[in-house]
Amino acid sequence: AAAGLSYVGGYVINTYKSYDNFLQDKYALLPAVIIICVAVVMFIIGLIGCCATFRESRVGLGLFLAIILVIFIAEVSAFVLGFVYREKVKTDVQGTMRSVFEKYDGKNPESTVVDYLQEQLRCCGVKNYSDWTTTQWFNSTGNNSVPLSCCRQDMKNCTGRLDQPQEL
Q1: CA distance 26 to 22
Q2: Which partner from 16, 70, 93, 149 sits 20 to 30 angstroms from 55, CA to CA?
Q3: 74/69 Cα distance (integer angstroms)
Q4: Which fold has domain 87-167?
């Protein structure tokens, strides 16, 4: 389990590089770091449990039980905090995404990330394609199109025009 968590934490940190323009907050990597720390702690706890069982030590098994109870309490606390602050996280991420969309010009690095994100997630805008109507990109195109990365992948002749929303 510790090896699996280590892999997930490393994968999240590696994937972060693709989305770092959207996640400008310095705490964006905190979940990945926590996952790696949990993996290390799990390995140590597993080692304590194995050694205590092997030696049939009552003190070692008691320590193992106490550690498992503390971990259970921490998991319940993390669940409650995640539930309580889910709207704040959602609002913060949407605000950051909107600011990146505002800077979109089709050429800068942020634009490349926006295009990549929209193509990979098969989405358009923060909530939908109408989010583009308030951006500089939309105004510069004569108020009638969104980036081609908004086009559905099965549409070959998509122009990104808003009068053809079935293609987006």
Answers
A1: 12
A2: 70
A3: 9
A4: Cd81 Antigen, Extracellular Domain; Chain: A (1.10.1450)
Q: Which two tokens stand for residue 38?
A: 């949990």
Contact by Cβ (8 Å): 105, 75: no
Tens digit of pLDDT for each residue in 86-112?
888 788 877 877 887 777 877 777 778
Residue 161 main-chain phi, psi, to 5 deg: -75, 140
Q: How far apart are the first and last CA of the chain?
A: 41
Helices assigned H by DSSP within 56-166: 58-84, 86-102, 109-121, 136-140
Whose tokens are 């998991």? That residue is: 75
Q: Which two tokens stand for residue 151?
A: 């086009």
CA 66 to chain centre: 33
Residue matched to tokens 């259970």: 72
